Please model this.
Amino acid sequence: MSSSLTACSPPHQKYQAVVGLSSAALIRSQLLKKSFITILKYVVPLVIIGWLLRSVDQEKLVRLWHEQQNWPMMLGGFLLAFAAVCLSFYRWHLLVRGLGLPFRVADAFRLGFLGYLLTFVSGGSVGGDLFKAVFIAHEQPGRRTEAVATVLIDRVVGLVSLLVITSVAIVMARPSYESPVVAAICNLTLLATVIGLTAMFLVLVPRHTSELMLKIAIRVPKVGVTLGRLVAALQVYRRRPGVVALVLALSLGVQGLLAISLFMAAESVLDDAPSLASHFIIVPLSMVAGALPFTPAGLGTFELAMDQLYLLIPEPPRSDGILVALVYRLITIVIAIIGVGYYWASRREVRELLDEAEHDPSLS
Model:
């Protein structure tokens, strides 16, 4: 009976049924693809970490597990890392206020800790930076692009400061160039630093150059208007040199604190840790690797970079960089737990903003 009714159904009803089935299949396919990618984002870095741990001397691991650690040194590393994270939140606050947007320090810390937490636990496309961008855009509907630009600018400033502090350490420490790999790493870092500083200078300092870049940005097809507003937001900072100087100083302070934090973490678990000067090269470069948007919070990529740079930079080479990286990873997880409190205090608003971020292509 039902088959006969279906056979007698009008053609447009059959077409609607086929379209409905196709849409459902497409949605299921997209969900499966998204779930598969999410699983890979966690499984692959865990496999990398497991492989790195297998390469460490097993006797050293057993001894490390049973011996008394230098807890005061580890606590010092935690406090310095925590201070660095807090300074990065305040840096973002200065960038937002530099555009003349209303933004409280308390909100910068609340969103900062929530974003820090989301870099660890967000399995979807919404990471900490995107969440912060959605929130600040939601609070500033009239100046949406400029508000979102502060998140991108904050990330760029952090990256350039990483390169600067690494370059200073390379020039001062003068690591051995006998290894072609070390030579390539050092030379590429110095080159990237020059390029980054030059780009910032062209945007922030000469008026005629920044105006030319604005005209070029506006003419870019499809995204010209958005790019133009981003460049215009950067030009605002040209009229606030005090803010720019303070932001850059804070950025260098953040990276310096993180390098010292990793050095203290190494001292807490290793008998003869590499020098502080070596860590000022190793840590920023590892942070750059960890900043690549492939895995949650740089899980796996940061550990791999630390392990390999421990083999290349110190004299003599070390094979236990993964141990130091894991100690620092535990420190960052403890810091991220603070974000749990902020999440529970405003979980409904957070869920709404996360949903908005998932479905807003202009912020992706």
Q: What stands out?
A: The radius of gyration is 24 Å. The chain has two domains: 2-43, 69-363. The chain is about 80% helix and 0% strand.
